[in-house]
Amino acid sequence: MLSFPPNFKVLVIGASGAIGSAFVDVLKLHPRCGLVESLHRHSEPSVDFDYESSIAEAAQKISHKGPFNLIINAAGLLYTPRFMPEKKMADLHYDQMIETFQANAFGPAMIIRHFSSILDNERSVMAILSAKVGSIEDNRLGGWYSYRASKAALNMFIKTASIEIKRSNPEAVLIALHPGTVNSKLSEPFKGAQIGRAPEVAVKDMLGVIDKLTAADTGQFFSYNGEKLPW
Question: What contacts 24+ positions apart, CB below 8 Å, involve 157-162?
Fold first, then answer.
């Protein structure tokens, strides 16, 4: 992470999941990293996408530890004990769509709203984990309606917010970041253990991409290997 200043500060949101906790573990061991703060549903302060007020309150309470050079949102939802990704239109229901959008689009949008103001003015990146299946242009298989649509909506929030943030913080970078298939609880029902990478490997890949970003890259959609993905 040589593009970041010595003792750079990091905030990981969604830090209780496999990818989020791996970001925390890897960055705490980084010799140039001076601070790693983590937030999730059970942290203090907590961030719970079911409660909009928790996002604003957490940002306010942690602001004194900033400004942060890197903020990562690793929270997201693919399935729950109540539902799996839809395979066909006949599987569509309001409840699943609302819950998926709240976790994958609405919550992260509020993260951008409340936490972008505590980004460092000289060198900072806010990376919001998205998914390649949220690319409209790349959609060749169909299915996974709510998940795909929620990630596409997230990407639009990111693109739009990046334009506004650039006016007040020209050096800040806001991106959507695809982690690839990771061996985690989220990917477990979809052969994640067989085809996924270890969370620590995925995190190191993504940090490699983040380290190379410049202000000109804000508002873009990147894969873990550095490839720019189509919207």
Answer: 157/105, 157/108, 157/109, 157/112, 158/112, 158/128, 158/130, 158/219, 158/221, 159/219, 159/231, 161/109, 161/112, 161/113, 161/116, 162/218, 162/219
